[in-house]
């Protein structure tokens, strides 16, 4: 299941820069999923998050750990370190 953040129109992207916590929260929001499913009705085996733009990898890692800790019941416990993240410092075009 793919989530996308920020999920905005091209015209409104230039008006507001989002923080890493805001992007992370939006990424896991069921309204930002690319299919008609609610991830809260199942469990995650693994997850991957890819961020683009200039941001701190430390902050990204902290936010991903926070998400996993807050939502631990949605992640299987028998796969350790099942959330991976990466940061590409080249901002998306647009």
From TrEMBL:
Gene3D superfamilies: Tubulin/FtsZ, C-terminal domain. Coiled coil: none annotated. It comes from the Eukaryota. Residues 1-93 form the Tubulin/FtsZ 2-layer sandwich domain. The keyword GTP-binding applies. Keywords: GTP-binding, Microtubule, Nucleotide-binding. Belongs to the tubulin family. This is Tubulin beta chain. It comes from Trifolium medium.
């Amino acid at each position: 299941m793919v989530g996308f953040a920020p999920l905005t129109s091209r015209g409104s992207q230039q008006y507001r820069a989002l923080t890493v916590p805001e992007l992370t929260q939006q990424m896991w929001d069921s309204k930002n999923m690319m299919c008609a499913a609610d991830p809260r009705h199942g469990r995650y085996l693994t997850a991957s998050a890819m961020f683009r733009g200039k941001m701190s990898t430390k902050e990204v890692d902290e936010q991903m750990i926070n998400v996993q800790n807050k939502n631990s019941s949605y992640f299987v416990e028998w796969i350790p370190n099942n959330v991976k993240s990466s940061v590409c410092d080249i901002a998306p075009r647009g």
